[in-house]
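Let's practice the habit of predicting before peeking. Look at the sequence and jot down your guess about where helices and strands might fall. Then scroll down.
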Amino acid sequence: MIVLGIVGTPAGGKSTVAKRLVGLGATWINADLIAKGVLERSDVQADLRQHYGAAITDSEGRVDRVKLAALVFGDDDASRRRLDYLEGRVHPETKRLITSQLLRLEKQGKAVAILDVPLLFESSWDRSCDEIWCVDAQENIRIERVRARGWTPQQLRVREKNQLDIAEKKRLSTRVITNNGTLTELNETISTLWSSLVQRHSAPSDSGHCLE
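Done guessing? Here is the structure:
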């Protein structure tokens, strides 16, 4: 099984690329969705309420992800410490679930697994990848996209600061995908890269990997 890591800038288009790859036959492991499931667990909710207080809860006493994000994504040291606690509480279980899913997919004989982890290099998931594709777009385009999500440009920049610099992500990646054009153009690029991926990893010289 080929493990394909997807990285990039926030709002660069990683999810769009992953969806296209699913259409071509890959299986998407979305770390954000897995982490969201961990965050919904009652024991994790209780710990976060105790640590951060009522500032992160909604009217029903459950953790509000928007309020939590506002508390941990900031430029100051206090925000960084709050983010460190959140990652320490959520990431270990998320990592365990991702590892379990990768093993299950391999046993099922899946051809390609997309590993979509926001901090892929920082959390050493790159070591599990056969290839890594980096998706980026111009800042003005990404700002338009985050505004549609209800974010401000400042929120986008703060999230960028909490990740590895995009220049370093590009340097460490196998392929760099520039997503400044139309969806049709992006899909054509992904289809070409997919064909190349299939050819490289199904070649006779490849050590045991075979795509269906």
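How did you do? Residues 2-199 form a domain with the Rossmann fold fold (CATH 3.40.50.300).
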